[in-house]
Structures are given as structure tokens and as C-alpha cells.
Amino acid sequence: MDHKLYESQVVLGNQRVMINILNNAISFLGDVDPTWTYDKYNLFGLTSPTQVFYDLYKELRGFVYDYTGEVDQLWMQSWVNYHMPDQLLKRHNHAYPIHGYISVDPKLTKTSFDNYEIQNRIGDVYIGPGGRYHSVELMEPFYTPRITIGFDVTDNPTKATGNLGMIPFI
Fold it and tell me: Which of 10, 65, 128, 150 is paired with 121 by a 20 to 30 Å CA distance?
């Protein structure tokens, strides 16, 4: 399956509010990097019960089910990527069948995959296969955190694990 790009009307209409909520929400995680502790929380739990993240969850659910088609049950983990220029993500992939991200404040960056690249824009929602290697590249310096919301999706239930971030996508 190839990748798809969607446009989040929730992010486009509420970006400043979302940045403020995310700045506050990650303070609850302490001094840990919110990207690399993705298995300890789910972003939509961390930002609950805010209306804007409820609306984003519903919108994202529609995008994911559009991407997957007739899949009956899905599970999702989600986290916030909150990085300065020297912290941008190096080449990596994801173990789950589907990976995506939502550009809340992506700065002037691009996400480079092996065979294509995405110019990140506010409100973009990328969804594609999880096994694809990618990295984030700086196109212009920035001085406040680059903020995206990462997510992985699976339709393959497994036994319970220590992953506190995986929730049903209902």
C-alpha cells in the first residue's frame, strides 16, 4: 500500500490552541523525551479532556479508516515529537504495519523516505506503511520546538504488553 496525505481542518483552525495544550501536556511527562517514551502514554489520553484533541482524534480516525479501507478493528499508539533543530529524527522505521504523523508546527522541514519526500506543512497528515525508513531534515533554522504528532496503527491484536500507549481506535 502506498502513502496518503490528508489535510487536518482541526489543526488548521486551532494550531495556536493546540501548541499551548501540547506545551502544557508534555510538562506532565517530566524531563523525559516525549518521542522516545511513546510506549508510556497515548497523546490523546495526555491531552484529554480537551475539545480540540477530541475533534482531532475523530478526524484522524476518519483518515485512518479511509486509508485502511474495510478493516474492522484497529489499535493506535500516539505521541508528540517535540524537537529543536539538533534533535530532529534520524533515519528509522516503525514496527507496526501503519505509521503516520500530524504536522502541528513542523517548521520548514521535510521528511525523507527512501523513494520520496514530504515537505511538511501545518495541518498535513501523512499515513503510510510502517516499515519505510525515513528521517526529518532541516530546510531552514528555527528557534522554537518543531511539533508533530506521531502515530502507529495495527489491525493485529496481540497479548497484553507493557506498552501503555496502545489503545483501541474506536
Answer: 65
Res 170 pLDDT > 80 = no
Tens-digit pLDDT profile for residues 131-152: 999 999 898 998 999 999 999 9
Nearest residue to 41 (alpha-carbon basis) of 53, 28, 52: 28
Shortest CA distance to 88 belongs to which of 130, 127, 140? 140
Which of 58, 64, 53, 59 lies closest to 22, judged by CA?
53
Question: pTM of the full predicted structure?
Answer: 0.94
Which one is the CATH code of 4-159: 2.115.10.20, 3.40.50.1820, 2.60.120.620, 3.40.50.300? Answer: 2.60.120.620
Q: Residue ranges per domain, the chain?
A: 4-159
- Residue pair 146/107 in contact (Cβ under 8 Å)? The answer is yes
